[in-house]
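One chain is below:
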Amino acid sequence: MVFSHPWVLWLLPLAALPLLLQRAHAKQYSWVNMLPADPLSDLISLILKCLAVLALFFIILGLSAPHTTEQKVERIGVGAQIALVLDRSASMDDPFSGMADNAGNMTVGETKSVAAARLITDFVKLRQQDMFGMITFSNSAMYVLPLTENKNAIIAAVQATSGNALFQTNIGSGLTSSAALFDKIPDSGSRAVILLSDGAGRIDAHTQQKIKDWFERLKISLYWIVLRQPGGLSIFDTTFVPAEDQPLPAEMELYEYFQTYKTPFKAYEAEDPKSLQSAMNDINNREKKPIKYFEKIPGKSYTNLCFMLAAIMVALLLGVKHLEVRTWH
């Protein structure tokens, strides 16, 4: 038991005042020794004083706001610790889907960022026992949220990513920051990073090795969802040959780099919200492993109970006062 306002407890000795004070009309008679003893009246008087003591006691105790401390209970569930790494480059504001009107003309649908935010929000809502963290990146990484069980916070953060963006795509910075989310966090048994981008930047060799070491040491799986333009270059195209003296496109180079990881890696390509939904569904099915997690049970407040008991004591005293026989003057 702990108290929000422990200093109020110094007033508890005041609760003994009814035992020390006499009723006012007890001094209106000069001499009552000739009256016979009345044990019943003495008992009732003592009970009334005790009720007054208890009323004051519970009032003071209630003012100190007693409550139990928060508890953590270990549970066994199905889920994972998941870091969302979302691309916030300017290209994410390009249209991602369209539909034909009655005349056969294509109309602009959602932008990539809006479609991604909508589908990731649905994904988070389905994962009741997961912990989520979030990193966004453009020219550099932005730390948004640590790994948390607060679904409302992560949903609000995801929906905020549909705003204005910057121009560069620094995936290396985003991945480095995402791995750091798991550092010094107890391993629940299943860890994953979901990287969502519509392109790729080149990562220098030193940063590549650093990210790779972190993912292997912290046992993090990687899911990469590439938002691909229809008809654009596919990272799965094994027949592609770059022009002479030209390196592989950044997307393909990054895909080959991810395949060197010793931890699980899976890549997806999404050309529209439907294929993006399919990728999210596959990740949802893959990341359903038994995990250990701690459920936070908030402390219980006893303030209202104390005031309720004090009210009962006061009500009893008022009831007895109402039934009291008036003394003749």
Observations:
- Residues 2-69+298-323 form one domain.
- The chain is about 35% helix and 20% strand.
- Residues 56 and 292 are 46 Å apart (CA to CA).
- The mean pLDDT is 81.
